[in-house]
């Protein structure tokens, strides 16, 4: 108890013509089990009601609250202040468009992503309300869920040097998303069709193996394994296409 | 001001909203969903446990049927539900689960062979059948006769919502996130859409549609300690109440979940108890079996929450700086189970509490969790009072939950109701024409702009919205919680009336530019306090105990006088109490009122002569 | 990912795929070369005679005369491939440096080290190859003479560690990019890489010392 925390927070409201980007300092007494969710809300309610940030579930489930915490992208709601030094620097996620202060627009980015990777099951099966479901091996279902756990927080994209250098790089989350469909037997896309989507420098071949995605992902998704799996798979597709000709 | 025209406007992009949107878009209508957050961050994503449907694939679900599911639901509701709706729900749920399966939900499947399971802390064996291999399996949940809860590890809501949003993306449903609806466009007879405020720029946008649907989820955040997301704040419920003609049903029926963790109020799933977790008191002894010898920890939520509160009152609670609590024990389930099937729980305990549930006990207490009440609709999902207005999901009082909803029934409700109501909207729009209500649009928009300007200029006063909100939350936490009394509720109503005055004189402390969060809070505070009054006043008037509504001074369920649904109207904007009306709980009885089989309580039957 | 683009699938990138394969293969080829190079040069540690013998075999088989220029081409080719990923514009340079500083993340820094060392290796390696290949045959004595004349020793003292850094980082990168290592074996791989790096630097420096002390 009793630490005095110093928060250095990025401030900028693009809607206010007088606002300029700057860092602002707020002080707060630390309390037991304090998280950044608690701290930021206290700052807003007690010190500056205009402070913008995103929280929704406040339980590490929805992915709303990613921001750069002392240099690392991560979920603010499950970051405990007791794991941080006295001085805490908070900035918004890079790559995504800024809405104001710590709030960025992940929604538009991810929507673009769904459309790019066509993030849905491709099948011509027509649903029959009277039939029982097609059986699936439970192990496969669990494998799919393992990849489906991404909460679209955007941390992996913000932490990726490639994504920051190249505007058109899809990022680990998009590649992981496609990978989820690759292993789903319900999706009838062929490897060649998947290649059309991610078989380029915008996709899997743009990844330089920086592994920051793997290291910051708050859900601990197996991104490193997933990316190398896709690289091999898509690499083989390319070779096959060449030798077929 | 920008005006956007669509066939269907859906406020809310959670499971209920998106399921309805998929139905409308599938029928070739243009549909747009509004949402405060990107669709996939909607609170449906937070549901971990699962959704109920009588598929009966697991050996523990053998003999299950839609009839058994129906009966569980009605008993769960303490006969407060609309039985036609409950029937419709139970019959449709299995079909919807299979549809979700086709759309891509990675349901956990039946694995044939022997396996262990826990019940009440003891270990049992079961053997799944070979012929069911690979079909959707189920887990155990409170208040059900069979294992019926379909699940995806511990991320059911997440996976289903992601699948649903994928489906919507495929169908071209537009989702306008960071758009917050603040008022309905209506003329007292017909609803024409809504005015929304952009949470990117702060601009007002008019959404004009032939059919409007409210699917904004629960309003738990009018309580201080709630498992709900911060956006579950009842903003649109306030706007609906504001019409003066649409009632909210059964607002006093608020569910408290037995296992919210202390102090952060995050839910740990029912699955913990379903899988064999036990509740312990200050002496680290089990107690639920004393009160509920049969179901013990697995009785329905209202019952468990009640006994927990009761047990703490006997002095058996664990003292802590954040108030008293009890313990949830899942240690005996083992590391594999906890880090596998209950991984999310494991993560919550370690990252929010610093507790390792493999070796340590989890501090829990009953916490506001679910709003059974909401926008009152008929069984087609059409709201009472306004043509062209619909509602589904937690936001609605469709009313299959009555006074207590069963775990796993609400997530199932979102997709079942979303599908049914979406279909009804399609029917409704078949030959429906309405004029573009230009005057109403401008009038509503101007009124909202005026409110904004007044708050920024401080014309009505300079009450701090955050303080007012806290006063409201504290009043409810104190007076309208698990146990309720005449005295406590009267005080609660009076406090809230005073808070309502303050809510009407909010002035911003900051400039209100752009997506100002202070302005967002200020715009809905008056509506929220009105909701709080609907809850407290409805509870004060309902002089019986039913489901989650527990009156200590009226402990009996009174089927003679109170087999009814409360309808709360706010007839005049300046009123400081809602106008309450009542209707029959159900138009017909497939299952006459009786004993639930758990949560022993006294019942005053319809033909009883005794004084209540 | 950029916004406002019409919604289309990413451009088909068979070329990108092939270039990525080639980048990896050129890297591996260069690694093999570096091993061969080390056996040649560092054999002087055991005995200058052995080095002379190895050099002689290479030259007898024309590996130096033909292989040298071919290697130079491979060197340039690898540069061309890898350079696709290096930001040459000031803005990109700023972004990536700021990013690495902000993130303070080992593998991101490692890439910067790799890219930066690459630029120096490109220049120094070319000079070195020119010097050696225009002064055949290779013998321990000639090398020692070069080493002991003028600033060459400093040249090698810089080049040797840089090459090791770049090569070890390259090995690590290929392993993680192509899945030779999985997430659970990453730490082990990391230890191996560090061990390998230290060993190579020690051998390299010892070689330089040996040349310096070798009587001309
Ligand atoms: C922690 C937790 C766990 C749960 N677990 C289970 C479970 O295991 N099983 C089960 O059956 N049920 C569970 N529930 C209940 C269930 O999750 C919800 O009842 C259900 O998801 C509600 O879905 P919905 O579609 O009605 O609303 P939500 O998913 O809450 O969606 C509401 C939508 O409305 C939008 N919105 C809100 N206000 C506005 C506004 N003013 N303008 C525009 N948009 C707005 C939001 O952005 C959001 O998109 C759980 C609930 C909680 C809190
Ligand atoms: C002895 C000489 C060299 C050797 C042995 C070598 C080896 C390697 C290896 C093995 C890789 C990994 C390849 C991959 O990731 O697919 C690599 C990557 C790289 N090399 Fe070299 N290299 C050499 C010289 C150079 C030169 C001269 C340059 C350029 C100026 C260069 C620039 C790069 C860059 C930028 C990368 C990173 C590519 C990426 O991250 O995708 N290298 N090198
Ligand atoms: C075919 C091409 C090459 C030949 C024949 C060759 C040969 C030699 C020889 C003979 C030496 C001993 C010192 C000297 O004579 O000056 C030497 C040293 C060295 N070479 Fe090369 N070399 C070649 C390519 C390269 C390349 C491409 C690199 C790296 C980019 C490189 C890096 C070094 C280094 C660092 C040393 C110092 C010795 C050490 O510390 O190991 N060489 N090389
Ligand atoms: S992959 Fe991980 S870091 Fe990336 S968006 Fe998903 S959850 Fe966030
Ligand atoms: S950080 Fe970026 S470069 Fe690849 S390994 Fe991860 S996507
Ligand atoms: S608020 Fe949902 S993840 Fe942090």
Shape of chain B: globular
Distance between the termini of chain C: 60 Å
- State the domain count of chain C: 1
Tell me, briefly, the overall form of chain C. globular
Q: CATH H level of chain C: which superfamily? A: Fumarate reductase/succinate dehydrogenase, transmembrane subunit
Percentage of residues assigned to helices of chain B: 25-40%
What summary fits the major beta sheet of chain B? 7 strands, mixed
The counted number of beta strands of chain B is 24
Name the bound molecules: flavin-adenine dinucleotide, protoporphyrin IX containing FE, iron/sulfur cluster, FE3-S4 cluster, FE2/S2 (inorganic) cluster
Report the average pLDDT across residues of chain C.
83
Question: What are the low-pLDDT stretches of chain C, counting only 5+ consecutive residues below 50?
Answer: 1-12
Keywords:
heterotrimer, A: 245 residues, alpha+beta, Ubiquitin-like (UB roll), Fumarate Reductase Iron-sulfur Protein, Chain B, domain 2, five-stranded mixed sheet, two-stranded antiparallel sheet, 9 helices, B: 612 residues, alpha/beta, seven-stranded mixed sheet, globular, binds flavin-adenine dinucleotide, binds protoporphyrin IX containing FE, binds iron/sulfur cluster, binds FE3-S4 cluster
Characterization of the model:
The complex is a heterotrimer of chains A (245), B (612) and C (216). Chain A has 245 residues and is of the alpha+beta class. Helix content of chain A is 37%, strand content 15%. Chain A has a five-stranded mixed beta sheet with strand order 2-1-5-3-4. A two-stranded antiparallel sheet of chain A has the order 6-7. In chain B, strands 1, 2, 7, 8, 9, 10 and 17 form a seven-stranded mixed beta sheet that branches. By secondary structure, chain C is mostly helical. Chain C has one domain (7-213): Fumarate reductase/succinate dehydrogenase, transmembrane subunit (3 helical TM bundles of succinate and fumarate reductases), CATH 1.20.1300.10. Helix content of chain C is 78%, strand content 0%. Chain C is built from eight helices and no strands. In chain C, helix 5 (106-133) packs across helix 7. The longest helix of chain C has 29 residues, at 14-42. Chain C starts with 13 loop residues before the first helix and ends with a helix. Residues 1-12 of chain C have low confidence and may be disordered. At the A-B interface, helix 2 and helix 3 of A face helix 3, helix 4 and helix 10 of B. The complex binds flavin-adenine dinucleotide, protoporphyrin IX containing FE (2 copies), iron/sulfur cluster (SF4), FE3-S4 cluster and FE2/S2 (inorganic) cluster. The site of one protoporphyrin IX containing FE (HEM) has 24 residues of chain C, from helix 1, helix 3, helix 5, helix 6 and helix 7.
């Amino acid at each position: 108890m009793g630490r005095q925390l110093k928060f250095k927070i990025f401030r900028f409201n693009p809607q206010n013509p007088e606002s300029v980007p700057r860092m602002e300092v707020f002080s707060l007494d630390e309390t037991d089990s304090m998280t950044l969710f608690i701290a930021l809300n206290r700052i807003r309610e007690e010190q500056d009601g205009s402070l913008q940030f995103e929280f929704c579930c406040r339980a590490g489930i929805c992915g709303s609250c990613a921001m750069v915490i002392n240099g690392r992208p991560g979920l603010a709601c499950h970051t405990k202040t007791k794991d941080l030094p006295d001085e805490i620097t908070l900035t918004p996620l890079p790559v995504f468009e800024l809405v104001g202060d710590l709030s960025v627009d992940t929604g538009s980015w991810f929507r673009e992503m769904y459309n790019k990777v066509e993030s849905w099951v491709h099948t011509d099966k027509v649903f029959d309300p009277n039939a029982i479901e097609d059986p699936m091996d439970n192990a496969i279902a669990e494998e799919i869920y393992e990849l489906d756990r991404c909460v679209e927080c955007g941390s992996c994209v913000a932490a990726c040097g490639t994504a920051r250098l190249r505007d058109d790089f899809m990022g680990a989350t998009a590649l992981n998303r496609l990978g989820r469909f690759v292993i789903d037997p319900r999706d009838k896309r062929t490897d060649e069709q998947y290649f059309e989507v991610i078989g380029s420098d915008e996709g899997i071949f743009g990844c330089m193996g920086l592994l920051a995605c793997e290291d910051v992902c708050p859900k601990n998704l197996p991104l490193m394994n997933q990316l190398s799996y896709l690289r091999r798979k898509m690499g083989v597709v390319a070779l096959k296409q060449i030798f077929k000709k | 001001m920008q005006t956007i025209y669509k066939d269907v406007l859906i406020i809310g992009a959670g499971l209920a909203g998106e399921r309805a949107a998929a139905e409308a878009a599938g029928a070739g209508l243009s549909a747009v969903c509004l949402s405060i957050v990107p669709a996939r961050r909607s609170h449906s994503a937070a549901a971990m446990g699962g959704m109920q449907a009588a598929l009966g694939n697991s050996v523990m679900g053998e003999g299950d049927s839609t009839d058994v599911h129906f009966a569980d639901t009605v008993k769960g509701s303490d006969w407060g539900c609309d039985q036609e709706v409950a029937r419709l729900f139970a019959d449709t749920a299995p079909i919807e689960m299979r549809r979700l399966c086709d759309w891509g939900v990675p349901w956990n499947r039946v694995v044939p062979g022997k396996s262990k399971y826990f019940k009440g802390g003891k270990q049992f064996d079961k053997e799944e059948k070979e012929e069911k291999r690979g079909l959707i399996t189920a887990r155990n949940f409170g208040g059900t006769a069979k294992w019926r809860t379909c699940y995806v590890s511990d991320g059911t809501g997440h996976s289903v919502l992601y699948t649903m949003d994928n489906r919507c993306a495929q169908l071209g449903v537009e989702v306008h996130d960071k758009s917050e609806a603040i008022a309905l466009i209506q003329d007292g007879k017909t609803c024409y859409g809504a005015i929304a405020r952009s949470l990117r720029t702060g601009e007002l946008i008019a959404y004009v549609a032939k059919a409007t649907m409210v699917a904004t989820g629960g309003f738990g955040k009018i309580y201080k300690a709630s498992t709900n997301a911060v956006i579950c704040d009842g903003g649109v419920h306030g706007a609906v109440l504001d019409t003066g003609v649409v009632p909210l049903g059964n607002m006093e029926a608020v569910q408290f979940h037995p296992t919210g963790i202390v102090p952060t109020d995050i839910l740990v799933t029912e699955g913990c108890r379903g899988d064999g977790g036990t509740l312990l008191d200050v002496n680290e002894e089990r107690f639920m079996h004393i009160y509920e010898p049969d179901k013990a920890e697995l009785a329905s939520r209202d019952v468990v929450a009640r006994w927990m509160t009761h047990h703490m009152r006997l002095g058996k609670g664990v003292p802590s700086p954040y108030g008293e609590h009890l313990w949830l024990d899942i240690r005996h389930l083992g590391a594999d189970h906890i880090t596998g099937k209950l991984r999310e729980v494991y993560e919550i305990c370690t990252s929010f509490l610093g507790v390792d549930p493999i070796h340590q006990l989890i501090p829990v207490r009953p916490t506001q969790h679910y709003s059974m009440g909401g926008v009152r609709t008929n069984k087609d999902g059409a709201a009472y009072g306004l043509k062209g207005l619909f509602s589904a999901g937690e936001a609605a009082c469709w009313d299959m939950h009555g006074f207590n909803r069963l775990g796993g029934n609400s997530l199932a409700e979102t997709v079942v109701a979303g599908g049914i109501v979406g279909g009804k909207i399609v029917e409704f729009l078949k030959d429906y024409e309405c004029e573009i209500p230009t005057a109403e649009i401008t009038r509503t928009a101007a009124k909202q702009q005026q409110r904004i300007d007044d708050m920024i200029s401080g014309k009505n006063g300079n009450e701090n919205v955050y303080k007012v909100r806290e006063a409201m939350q504290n009043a409810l936490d104190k007076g309208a919680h698990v146990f309720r009394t005449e005295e406590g509720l009267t005080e609660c109503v009076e406090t809230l009336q005073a808070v309502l005055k303050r809510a009407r004189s909010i002035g911003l402390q900051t400039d209100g530019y752009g997506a100002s969060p202070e302005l967002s809070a200020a715009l809905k505070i008056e509506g929220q306090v009105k909701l709080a009054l609907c809850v407290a006043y409805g509870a004060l008037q309902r002089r019986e105990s039913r489901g989650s509504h527990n009156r200590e001074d009226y402990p009996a369920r009174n089927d003679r006088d109170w087999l009814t649904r409360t309808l709360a109207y706010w007839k005049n904007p300046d009123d400081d109490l809602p106008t309450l009306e009542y209707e029959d709980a159900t138009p017909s009885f497939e299952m006459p009122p009786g004993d639930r089989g758990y949560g022993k309580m006294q019942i005053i039957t319809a033909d009883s002569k005794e004084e209540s | 990912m950029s916004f406002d683009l019409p919604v289309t699938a990413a451009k088909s990138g068979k070329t990108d795929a092939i270039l990525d394969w080639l980048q990896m293969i050129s890297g591996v080829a260069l690694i093999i070369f570096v091993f061969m190079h080390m056996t040649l040069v560092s054999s002087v540690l055991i005995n200058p005679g052995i080095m002379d013998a190895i050099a002689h075999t290479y030259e007898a088989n024309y590996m130096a005369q033909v292989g040298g220029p071919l290697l130079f081409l491979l060197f340039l080719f690898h540069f061309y491939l890898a350079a696709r990923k290096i930001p040459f514009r000031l803005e990109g340079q700023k972004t990536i440096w700021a990013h690495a500083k902000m993130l303070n993340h080992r593998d991101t820094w490692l890439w910067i080290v790799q890219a930066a060392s690459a630029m120096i290796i490109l220049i120094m390696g070319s000079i070195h190859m020119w010097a050696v290949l225009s002064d055949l045959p290779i013998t321990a004595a000639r090398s020692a003479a070069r080493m002991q004349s003028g600033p060459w020793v400093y040249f090698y003292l810089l080049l040797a560690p840089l090459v090791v850094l770049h090569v070890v980082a390259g090995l690590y990168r290929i392993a993680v990019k192509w899945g030779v290592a999985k997430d659970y074996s990453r730490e082990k791989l990391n230890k191996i890489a560090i061990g390998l790096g230290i060993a190579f630097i020690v051998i390299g420096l010892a070689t330089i010392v040996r040349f310096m002390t070798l009587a001309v």
